[in-house]
Amino acid sequence: MHASLHTDKPLVLTDADRASINARARKELLYIILAQALVGLFVAIIAGMVAGKVAALSALAGAGAYFVPNLLFALRLFIATHQPKGASPVMFLMGEMLKMVAAVGLLWLIARVGGDRVSWLAVVAGLIGVVKAYLLMLALGGFRSGSVVKYGDKK
């Protein structure tokens, strides 16, 4: 083990470092939200082609049950990147908790309003698609070297 890896000195960031980190965070937040929206739409289109309009709408509802709370949470984090202190860990965890509660509430609302007209397989497919959209980004080369690598970019 290297003794030089452990230090008692705090990490000191310059204003330029903070600006760079915040710019990267804003960019990645936007890409994640875009990926989630595209995956949700893709799942809805596939569900519609396979099982019809009810399945497409159900998949959109399932995707929206996670996408909407996550979009609001991402917006809050985006705004925090423009503030001097950013988002505190406590606020981040509270936001995550509220996001999960909101998603469960929206799923309950889908069941309550949709009743028997809901295709639950499509709802779950839309929900899982949006929740796991970041894995698709990682598989396609996202978040390498601090930025999202677009298809066709030179590495």
Features:
single chain, 155 residues, mainly alpha, 0% strand, disordered C terminus
Please compute the radius of gyration using only Cα atoms: 19 Å
Q: So how many helices?
A: 5
Q: What share of residues is helical?
A: over 70%
Largest sheet: none
Organism: Sheuella amnicola
Membrane topology: Multi-pass membrane protein
GO cellular component, one term: plasma membrane
Pfam families: ATP-synt_I
Summarize the topology.
Blueprint: H1 15-51, H2 53-80, H3 89-114, H4 120-131, H5 133-139
Helix pairs in contact: 1-2, 1-4, 1-5, 2-3, 2-4
Describe what you observe in this structure.
- It is a single chain.
- This protein has one domain (22-139).
- The chain has five helices and no strands.
- The protein has helices spanning 15-51, 53-80, 89-114, 120-131, 133-139.
- The two termini are 32 Å apart.
Short description:
The protein is mainly alpha-helical and 155 residues long. Helices cover 71% and strands 0% of the residues.
